[in-house]
């Protein structure tokens, strides 16, 4: 009886320890990487590229219609480009991972069924090209709407440019914060990185457009 009692304690202790570890196990943030990467990149790209495009046009054209039209054309073209590019990229990754899984299954088939169960689990975690493309295109469109809406209802040219820059800056900080929280990354560093990058893109576009006009190009 004493021997039986001694051997049952480690078993129960191990079971309790395993249960505690399972309960305390943190969420695997890498599971979010597929759609999070596509959504965050799409939204930031929509914000920065369309805002930079509109500011570049605004550097030489004070007409609000020219800015809105260029921004809308950039939204449509950019969303399609992001969706197609993401689909092609993720589909290539999918083919590579499927080929790797197929090689692993062929090597493991001679052992036991547990390996086949593991391979089926891997199939469930494979990237989805269509979801990634939709997330990227939709996120780009949502991000691009921010500068468009900021400029649509303002008549004064300088105030319009200031409104675009301010609104886009706030949105960049917000998207950086959301991406950091969902990805369990440092919030301040992520937001500052996204914001500074957006400022640089807008400033470079504005400056180069002004430079081209100053060199004698007529528009």
Automatic annotation (TrEMBL):
Output this protein's name: Vacuolar iron transporter
Q: Which UniProt keywords apply?
A: Ion transport, Iron, Iron transport, Membrane, Transmembrane, Transmembrane helix, Transport, Vacuole
The membrane topology of this protein is: Multi-pass membrane protein
Q: Which PANTHER family match?
A: FE(2+)/MN(2+) TRANSPORTER PCL1
Q: Does the keyword Iron apply?
A: yes
* Cellular compartments per GO CC: vacuolar membrane
Task: Provide the family line.
Answer: Belongs to the CCC1 family.
- Compartment annotation: Vacuole membrane
Reaction catalysed?
Answer: Fe(2+)(in) = Fe(2+)(out)
Tell me what organism the protein belongs to.
Answer: Cinchona calisaya
């Amino acid at each position: 009886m004493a021997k039986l009692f001694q051997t049952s304690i480690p078993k129960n202790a191990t079971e309790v320890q395993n249960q505690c570890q399972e309960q305390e196990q943190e969420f695997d943030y890498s599971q979010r990487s597929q759609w999070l990467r596509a959504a965050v990149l799409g939204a930031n790209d929509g914000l920065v590229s369309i805002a930079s495009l509109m500011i570049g046009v605004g550097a030489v054209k004070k007409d609000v219609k020219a800015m809105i039209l260029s921004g809308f054309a950039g939204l449509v073209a950019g969303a399609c480009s992001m969706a197609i590019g993401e689909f092609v990229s993720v589909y290539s990754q999918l083919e590579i991972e499927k080929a790797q899984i197929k090689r692993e299954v062929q090597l493991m088939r001679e052992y036991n069924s547990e390996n086949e169960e593991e391979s089926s689990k891997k199939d469930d975690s494979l990237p989805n090209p269509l979801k990634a493309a939709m997330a990227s295109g939709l996120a780009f469109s949502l991000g691009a709407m921010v500068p468009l809406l900021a400029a649509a209802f303002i008549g004064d040219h300088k105030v319009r440019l200031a409104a675009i820059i301010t609104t886009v800056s706030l949105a960049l900080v917000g998207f950086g914060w959301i991406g950091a929280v969902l990805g369990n990354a440092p919030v301040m560093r992520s937001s500052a990185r996204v914001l500074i990058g957006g400022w640089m893109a807008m400033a470079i576009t504005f400056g180069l457009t002004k430079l081209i006009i100053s060199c004698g190009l007529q528009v």
